Amino acid sequence: MEKMSLFIKIENYEDVLDLMTVIKGKVNDIKSTFSEIRQIKDEEDTKLEVWKKNMEVIEGKLGNVDRVLFEPED
């Protein structure tokens, strides 16, 4: 990528530097928030997977109870 020069007035230079600092801070805040959201989502996914497995166990047990109660004995 070709480097291009950027010309700004000296009196605006400090304002631009201040704005760049603010923007970099906001980007870091967003990255931090995204990381926290990802962590929460991963925890939720783990809990949902446990709940799903528990539900499958319960369904299996209900199926066994159904068979015992409603199938004729030989």
List key phrases describing it.
mainly alpha; rod-shaped; single chain; 74 residues; 0% strand
Percentage of residues in helical conformation: over 70%
End-to-end gap:
82 Å
Instruction: Please report which band the strand proportion falls in: under 5%, 5-15%, 15-25%, 25-35%, 35-45% or over 45%.
Output: under 5%
- Low-pLDDT parts are none
Q: Strand-and-helix sequence, N→C?
A: H
Q: How many individual β-strands?
A: 0
Name the structural class: mainly alpha
Shape: rod-shaped
Task: Report on this structure.
This protein has 74 residues and is an all-alpha fold. The chain has a domain at 23-67. It is built from one helix and no strands. The protein is rod-shaped. The mean pLDDT is 91.
Which helices and strands appear, and what pairs or packs with what?
Elements: H1 10-70
Summarize, please.
The chain has one helix and no strands.
